[in-house]
Design goal:
Blueprint (H helix, E strand, L loop, with lengths): L17 H41 L9 H10 L25 E2 L2 H13 L8 E4 L4 E7 L22 E7 L1 E5 L2 E3 H5 L5 H23 L14 E3 L8 E5 L13 H9 L2 H4 L3 E4 L1 H7 L11 E2 L9 E2 L2 E5 L11 E6 L1 H4 E5 L4 E5 L6 E14 L5 E5 L4
Parallel strand pairs: 2-14, 7-8, 8-17, 9-12
Antiparallel strand pairs: 1-15, 3-4, 5-16, 6-16, 9-13, 10-11, 11-12, 13-17, 14-16, 15-16
């Protein structure tokens, strides 16, 4: 039997009195509340550190990023109250100033524009695309075989060849779009201004980029894949692009027209051919898809599933309307490993500036980004020339 004993002079009944139990319960509650406070403080501190880090990352480009709500207010009415404390007043639009005018669009709009750029059928969809934060991007290309050799126990090891390293610098250029809308349309709350703006900007960027990546001269725009000097593939050297002729002056050869396509494919090295793809415009597609081999089988096959590209001799075909039409001395078809052959470098930030004054009663939206492109492996692509030789 358990017996409860009180200390000298203490009433036994007071040991388990209601007051004592309430006091003990309160002490336990205060201890648990203190622990809860410490956990809340720790969580808030963690969140504050995370927000500070994200803010620092956002501001690393030198321009404030719009939140979705602040962007909507800015685009519709020019209200920049949501940007107070972040505005860069007094900064002129100048490429010489790191923090020039304009605001970064919100991530959702930027991602929507970026996804539309990648979804289009252009060189971007098959090229190597890199994100940079500088004004240029350097690519180092080892254009020689790696030095190697067999060694024996008794013979002296001979010196191997030194690799040749090529540095290709891709300069970033400013690509701009300037869609406009009436203020009355912007005042309509049912009008999806962010979606409309994303589509307009992406459409203009797609057209400008597609043309530059194929035919750009490198002056305030990327260098196109057709820019370098073209030479017959038998005499190809680094810095040029090799071509294979069709065998006819202004079209495919009358007899065995598909032979030039086969020659084009096998002019490319086997290591590149594994990732090969064709690039041509719609008119050329119309001519090529009629071709048959010596056994009467079509070289062309349509994609078996939705979104899958058509194939020519088993290789995917990308349709780019900026490729030349079939004509005398035109380079109508390109075949290569374009991820190795061509590199697109771009900054991830997309800026926008609202201009309600230059085109009254309409409002202009000046959007710009930086992008560059150049051939980074001259051995990774071959061209088909519409010519006898």
């Amino acid at each position: 039997m358990t017996e409860t004993k009180a200390r000298a002079g203490e009433d036994v009944s007071s040991v388990h009195s209601p007051a004592a139990e309430a006091k003990a319960a309160m002490a336990g509650f205060l201890k648990e509340f203190s622990t809860f406070q410490d956990e809340v403080k720790s969580t808030l501190k963690h969140q504050e550190e995370r927000l500070t880090m994200l803010n620092a990352k956002t501001m690393s480009y030198g321009r404030p990023a719009l939140s979705a709500r602040a962007e909507n207010a800015y685009l519709r009415s020019g209200d920049d109250d949501g940007l107070r404390g972040l505005t860069l007043e007094g900064k002129a639009m100048s490429t010489a100033v790191a923090a020039d005018g304009g605001y970064l669009v919100d991530p959702q709009t930027a991602d929507r524009i970026r996804s539309m750029l990648f979804a289009t059928s252009s060189l971007r969809s098959i090229a190597n695309v890199v994100q940079v934060e500088a004004t240029s991007f350097d690519v180092l290309v080892d254009r020689s075989e790696v030095g190697s050799g067999w060694a024996t126990e008794v013979a002296a090891t001979t010196e191997t060849a030194t690799p040749v390293i090529e540095r290709i610098s891709i300069k970033l250029h400013e690509l701009a779009a300037m869609p406009k809308a009436s203020q009355r349309l912007l005042d309509d709350s049912a009008f999806d201004v962010e979606g409309w703006l994303a589509e307009k900007i992406a459409t203009r960027f797609i057209r400008a980029e597609a043309a530059a990546f194929i035919n750009g001269d490198g002056i305030d725009k990327p260098k196109g894949i057709l820019l370098p000097t073209k030479v017959a593939d038998a005499t190809w050297t680094w810095g040029n692009i090799g071509y294979v002729p069709t065998g006819a002056a202004a079209d495919f050869a009358t007899t065995n027209p598909a032979d030039c396509i086969i020659n084009l494919v096998y002019a490319l090295g086997a290591d590149y051919r594994a990732n090969g793809a064709f690039l041509m415009n719609s008119k050329t597609v119309g001519a090529v898809r009629k071709m048959r081999d010596a056994d009467g089988r079509f070289l062309w096959s349509d994609g078996l599933a939705a979104g899958e590209p058509a194939r020519l001799m088993g290789y995917p075909v990308v349709v780019s309307e900026d490729m030349p039409d079939i004509a005398a001395n035109a380079y109508a078809i390109a075949f290569g490993d374009f991820r190795s052959a061509y590199t697109i470098a771009e900054r991830p930030d997309l800026r926008i500036l609202r201009d309600p004054f230059s085109a009254k009663p309409n409002v202009l939206f000046y959007a710009n980004k930086r992008v560059g492109g150049d051939i980074t492996d001259f051995a990774a692509v071959k061209l088909l020339k519409i010519a006898v030789s």
